[in-house]
Amino acid sequence: MAQIYAYCYKGRQTTKQDKCYPAVKLDKARVWLDFNECCAYDEESEIYLFSQADIVNDSDGNDVELYEGMEVSVFDDDLDELNQPDAILAEGIIVKNTLEKYPNVKWLIRLIKNKVNNKSGNLYVYWLSDL
Question: Which of 4, 53, 119, 124 has the greatest CB tally within 10 Å of its CB?
Fold first, then answer.
């Protein structure tokens, strides 16, 4: 995860974690998610580590203030079969971290199973080229 730092947001002191920017143009503003950081599974979906801070940036450079239950569109850079950038896309819900194994992480994301990917058959992850 990226380093966090003190940040003044809407007149109050908080923390921010800068996320990375996409290698390709996305369909809409999204927040970067490392799809290698799956930390839990439940009956609903996979859960990923998301942020150590309350503020992150989206792919357009906007500040996004995280809160419990917030819906977030996420992406991760990936390469297609020709080694061309082809972002992985998903939707998720922000949840407060209650996992003792990751005490430095404040926020997790539970992916929403609402899309079917033609490439992978997964119910919640799809690729930009599928749009």
Answer: 53
Write out pLDDT tens, residues 47-99.
999 999 999 999 999 999 999 999 999 999 887 778 887 888 889 999 999 99
> Which residues does residue 13 pair with via DSSP β-bridges, in sequence order?
8
Q: How far apart are CA 55 and CA 64, in angstroms?
A: 5
CB 99 within 8 A of CB 39: yes
Q: pTM for the whole thing?
A: 0.84
17, HSE (Cβ side, Cα atoms, 13 Å): 20
State the DSSP string of 19-41: PPPPSS--SS--EE--TT-EEEE
Give every CB contact of residue 124 below 8 A, 6+ residues apart in sequence: 45, 46, 90, 91, 111, 112, 113, 114, 115
